[in-house]
Design a protein that fits this description.
single chain; 156 residues; mainly alpha; Arc Repressor Mutant, subunit A; three-stranded antiparallel beta sheet; 3 strands; 11% strand; WH_DNA-bd_sf; MarR family transcriptional regulator; WH-like_DNA-bd_sf; MarR/SlyA-like
């Protein structure tokens, strides 16, 4: 690719994007590992993680945080209640709403799936230090630029 060749640059960007997506979503599929370990759908895992990390939360706040329909959150929370992973109690600040809180068992499972999700794949850990540092610098720049333009909250 010649310097300034827009078509070549676009092709290189497309290859890099495809490789990143393939690595994260297929080769190092942490979502599948987490769902296999927990026996739950990934959305239920996200729901449990949110409750475990944010403490008691209302169903409405949970729906907003997860960008989900309130009725879907209600079904997901009911499943978690049935499994003994969370409890639902009246909200002392507003008796019309319920607070959802993680149980000890739910906290243990949430910690387990968080460890799975946050553990780097072996292929990444096996990279030479220089390559890993370069990749870290590039991804840091890309994610910093992405969060500047994000409409929703950044982070997990």
């Amino acid at each position: 690719m010649k310097h300034g060749d827009a078509a070549g640059r676009e092709e290189t960007a497309a290859r890099a994007w495809w490789a990143m997506r393939t690595f994260v979503l297929e080769l190092a599929d942490k979502r599948k590992q987490a769902t296999d370990a927990s026996g739950m759908s990934y959305f239920r895992i996200k729901t449990l993680r949110r409750i475990a990390t944010e403490g008691p939360v209302t169903l409405r706040a949970l729906a907003t945080a997860l960008y989900a329909d309130a009725s879907y959150i209600t079904l997901s929370v009911e499943y978690l209640v049935q499994r003994g992973l969370v409890t639902r109690t009246p909200n002392p600040a507003d008796r019309r709403s319920k607070l959802v809180q993680v149980t000890d068992e739910g906290a243990r499972l949430a910690a387990r799936v968080i460890r799975i999700m946050e553990s780097p794949p072996q292929a990444l850990r096996d990279l030479p230090e220089e390559d890993l540092a370069t990749l870290d610098r590039i991804l840091d720049r890309l994610t910093a630029e992405g969060t500047e333009h994000a409409e929703g909250p950044s982070g997990r």
